Amino acid sequence: QVQLVESGGGLVQPGGSLRLSCAASGIFLNSDNMSWFRQAPGKEREGVSCNSRSDGRTDYEDSVKGRFTMSRDNARGTVYLQMNSLKPEDTAVYYCAAQGAWYSGGCLRIAKTYNFWGQGTQVTVSS
Predict the structure, then answer these.
(1) What secondary structure letter does DSSP report for 33?
(2) What pLDDT, on the 0 to 100 scale, is given for residue 105?
(3) How many alpha carbons fall within 13 Å on the CB side of residue 114?
(4) Where does residue 119 rank: exposed (0-12), middle (13-18), buried (19+ CB within 10 A)?
(5) CA distance 64 to 82
(6) Which of 31, 44, 73, 97 measures 20 to 30 Å from 57, CA to CA?
(7) 77-97: average pLDDT
(8) DSSP label of 43
(9) Is 3 helix (H, G, I), strand (E, B) or coil?
């Protein structure tokens, strides 16, 4: 049984930082493309970043480039999202997702290509 469990969310002031973690079980992390998504109230879920299993590269959504850094520790089965210079518009529920080892497409920030999801962690940026 695959489980993805996010942690690290919370309330932070604008300009602050948070580090999200996603603990994965039931999958071999090094066999999977992993992504972070977020969903703000009244908005569609959007892909924040995708880390490729093949070359380790990460693709970021434009609004977070230079501020967010995604990484993974395959040995620990954990994926991270370091978020710096946070803005109020970053407020959302953040989700960790895995495409599935059988997925033959590329590392895409498209929600329908993901088969496994965490429960989400709330990030609120406010003064």
Answers:
(1) -
(2) 79
(3) 25
(4) exposed
(5) 11
(6) 44
(7) 98
(8) S
(9) strand
Report the distance separating Cα 59 and Cα 77, nearest Å: 20
Side chain identity, residue 105: G
Q: Residue 120 pLDDT more than 90?
A: yes
Task: Look at the block and give the residue holding tokens 């380790």.
Answer: 56
Alpha-carbon gap, residue 18 to 20, rounded angstroms: 6
Distance CA 121, CA 110 (A): 19
Do 5 and 117 form a contact (C-beta atoms < 8 A)? Answer: no
Report the alpha-carbon distance of residue 85 to residue 36 in Å, rounded: 18
* Closest-CA residue to 21 (of 86, 77, 89): 77
| Distance of alpha carbon 123 from alpha carbon 78, whole angstroms | 19
